[in-house]
Amino acid sequence: MDTTVATPSLGRQMLNKVPEVTIYFWIIKVLCTTIGETGADNLDEKYNLGLANLTYITGGILALVLVFVFSAKRYVPVLYWAGIVLISVVGTLITDNLTDNHGVALELTTTIFSIALAVTFAAWYASERTLSIHSIVTTRREAFYWVTVLFTFALGTAAGDLIAEKSGLGYGWSVVLFAGAIAIIATAHKRFGLGPILSFWLAYILTRPLGASIGDLLSQPKADGGLGLGTSVTSYIFLATILALVAYLTLTRADQTPPEVVEHELEEHQILAHHLSHKDRG
Predict the structure, then answer these.
(1) 38, 212 contact by CB (below 8 A)
(2) CB-side neighbour CA atoms (13 Å) of 56
(3) pTM for the full model?
(4) Is the four-CA dihedral 243, 259, 198, 129 of positive or negative sign?
(5) Type and span of the H or E element at 204
(6) Is the per-residue pLDDT at 254 higher than 60?
(7) CA dist., res. 215 & res. 209, Å (int)
(8) pLDDT at 9
(9) 244 in Cβ contact with 28 (< 8 Å)
(10) Residues 6+ apart with CB under 8 A from 64
(11) Are residues 146 and 87 in contact, defined by beta-carbon separation less than 8 angstroms?
């Protein structure tokens, strides 16, 4: 069987299309996941369009934004994070549609999205021999990346809602639970050698229920265990914070992957592809 990685997928077609994983990345990611929860609820409450119609509308806007994202030859903060905010809302609405409109149990949606995410990871690795976000330098890798991100949001929503319903912890303790899980992953990476790619994607998935729990804690009525800010105020506060951070990153370029990091990873992948090719022929 020929397992040689196709030359076009390894050749550098563009600068790395996603941000470097810095503290800014994680802060904005959690803010975006919170917007996904409160924004979806706010749109549903304000416009009363129904979950299905909201999904179609926000999905269409997301598709339009992704056209611009894919058209760019480098990471553009405002385009990238607009895509993440919208995909957070769409991922939430997809899960809510399945559970609220179609009566699909959270156990089943969690299983479905877990399988979908695993299949996407497997296809991505089979095609590109890497799941690293340091080397999103071709259109194919970028497509794998955004499909993966969509499934992480959908899975995070389903799994987070399932845990919240089964545990009955309340919003505050849910924040502690998911933040603690991320801290354990970070410790396992720093102290015990858990791989960086696995650590990243595990933490990435968990930021979705963490952000949702923070959003619910801030927005829900005090009688229900929240702080009573409402979905509109919470969404506006978080959106304003995202805009301020994105403006800072646009000016400073503090989260752009250094070119030498990308080149190093591409060289390693080319060596791996060459090794696999000779191994199969042997």
Answers:
(1) no
(2) 4
(3) 0.85
(4) positive
(5) helix 196-219
(6) yes
(7) 10
(8) 40
(9) no
(10) none
(11) yes
Question: What is the structure's pLDDT at 129?
Answer: 87
Q: How far apart are CA 216 and CA 227, in angstroms?
A: 9
Asked if residue 157 lies in contact with residue 178, where contact means CB atoms within 8 angstroms, the answer is: no
With b meaning 16 or more CB within 10 Å and e meaning fewer, what string describes 88-119?
A: bbbbbbbbbbbbeeeeeebeebbebbbebbee
Alpha helices in 23-133 (DSSP H): 23-47, 51-71, 77-96, 106-128
Tokens of 198: 């696995």
72 contact partners, CB below 8 Å, separation of at least 6: 14, 17, 79
Pairwise CA distance, residues 179 & 54, whole Å: 30
Higher-confidence residue of 16 and 118: namely 118
Q: Who contacts 83 (Cβ-Cβ below 8 Å, separation ≥6)? A: 62, 65, 66, 69, 146
pLDDT per residue over 24-72, tens digit each? 999 999 999 999 888 888 888 888 888 889 999 999 999 999 999 999 9
Domain extents in the chain: 17-262
| Residues 121-149, mean pLDDT to the nearest whole number | 92
